[in-house]
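Exercise 7.
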Amino acid sequence: MLSKSIPMGQKRATRFRNHGHTHGALIVQPETLRRDFPFTLDLRRMPDIPSGRTSKQVSGLRMDYDVLIIGSGPAGQQAAWQAARMGKRAAIIERKPKLGGAGLQTGTIPSKAMREVAYLLSRSGYGGMRQALAPDSVNRHALLADAVRRKEVVIAQQESVILQRLLRSGVALIPGEAAFADAHTMQVTDAAGNIRTISASAIVLASGSRPRRPADVPFDKKTVLDSTSILNLRHLPDSLTVVGGGVIACEFVSIFAALGVKVCVVDSHAQLLEYLSEDVVGVLADSFLGMGVSFHMEERVAHIRREQGGTLTVLESGKQIRGDAVLYAQGRQPNSEKLHVEHAGIVAEGGWIAVNEHYQTSVPHIFAVGDLIGRPALASTGMEQGRAAVLYAFDGEQQVTAENLPMAVYTIPEISYVGKTEKEVQQENILYRVGRAFFKDSARGQIIGDAQGLLKLIVDARNEKLLGVHIVGEQASELIHIGQLVMNFHGTVRDLVSNVFNYPTLAECYKIAAMDCIHQLKQNSMQSG
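Solution. The predicted structure, written as tokens, is:
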């Protein structure tokens, strides 16, 4: 059973029906999930198999569930909901006291919620009509504390949504640490040390990942931080050294620089986000410079030391960087070591689990999805992987996933892209043309004051099909889906020219960039003719 400690008078319980059977689970209403009493699982009793359903036999053995999902993050949730829609007996095993995994509790949602505050502050007085809202002064420390508080409210609200949806679907929630006993059986250890064995016909591993924390980095959650602990700061440091130049590092550079912190970036690459187009990253780098960020590129950290009142970061070149705090953001590592996958006959390379195109591991009825299998390690792709794994497990149906997947970096400004970069197209010896549109060329861009925003189309000169779309600027993560749809339906740049966009919008930039491409293609045709 599932329960929640709620003061008398605030608990409303009801029984609900699912697939024609009655279950005695407690539904917690959204208004009861307030910040002062967050959701927790009742660790005193493991949930029973839902009544009214018969267990299934596999090789003569009776199974408790059709499918066990390890982890309640985005991938695990989608796997559970898909199983419920198919009428399967599904259960999620979650080792943390709260639902949602890193995506909700310590990663995607918290960082984006914090970014929203920093973004709005950075846009106030930025230009265009927003100049009228320029604040005379802002207590940035109070702003951070309020942002942290509001972030917790957002998390609690989303957790409530997840909880109710799982319960309405008839998915059992089992608290505890899961480990394989054999290929069909998990041992679940609760907070009190009690162990229960639970079996299933199929198992989906969706235990996620966590920040990489090398032993020689003196993390203390106060001055030497990772991407989880930095979300709980209540007071802004005057200066912050960020080690890393990837997605997570750049997102936090944006947040803290926008809040007025003096940020210094140390990265071993020649360019931030080194796998992206240089001109797109150049816009981001210029924005960082405008916010006072300094860079030590192509540099490696020798060691980090905590000192009285701050930190010291020593580079291999001998340079020393003093600051109030350090964020170490160089990669993540899989949460697989406590699963003991070897007991099921699975080999994990460096903790990562290899899968085939159906997300099956080397043991066919055991699947792995999300961060646990490595790149792209996105919440959006993890969700689709969870659904696809369950569909294949029970129907042998292969989920058709879009060929071109969008990626987004929630920096200030945002970056989003789909398809190939110019460098990749050049390596494949494809004749191509590039169409560009700057946000300042659109009326909406002038209104919002985004003078640096850029939308770039990479087009195959032979058939005019889109090979890639790259956007940097406001709403990039939303705008990218237009290009993604055109690419997935094998459209051409002329489809964007013939389309009518609302006015004024940033989406008009697609038409501007497409017309730029068409102009180049016509010129090339005339020259060759």
